Please model this.
Amino acid sequence: PDTRPPAAPIAPTPPAGDRIAVLARGHKLTPLQRLLNITVPAYGSPRCMYRGYYTHGRWPHCQCFPGWGGANCSESQSLPARPKACVVFLMYDTANKEYYRYQKKTLVALDRYFNDRFRYPVVIFHSPKYAQRMSRGQNTTWLDDVRRSTRSQVIFQEVNFQYPKYLRPWQTVKIQCPRYRYPRALNYVHMISFFSLGWFRHPILAEYEYVWRLDGDLALTK
Model:
């Protein structure tokens, strides 16, 4: 027997002057959609009351436009004044002083070109070394110096990367690549592993709906 769910009823095409049709046809691509070269229909699907796109696949559903919700986008929803979001960085090696200086410059540029206006919190994951003093005779830590470089609210979160058991014998192997020599290459692999899965599971990000991950050596110019 056919176990597929019954198809959603197809709503009649609204007249050209209908408010819903006008709003749907006026839906524009977001900057991210334009960047990723994503194409969408010129207006909403009739299955979604012209208030969203009907997504086919294993779990077909209506992807409603902002301000609408429900199974077929028939329910009006209030738009949040401000999304729950944050900016995320990772500092994982104090040996690379050049990268550390770039991190501070990036925070200064982030304030100037974005966060002085929007005031989103900045979450910085860091290795345990950054909580140590910068030099003997100083009480200032690397984290204190980073905090002084920005006007944004900064939330520091320590992460301690560990090698999987099957990689531990490789720690003493010299990497021959001239660009990524040991131990820099292994720190880079830690970063890739963390941003592939680890940060999605971290409880400090549980309260946020959106995150903007940036590299510490990113150049913001406008």
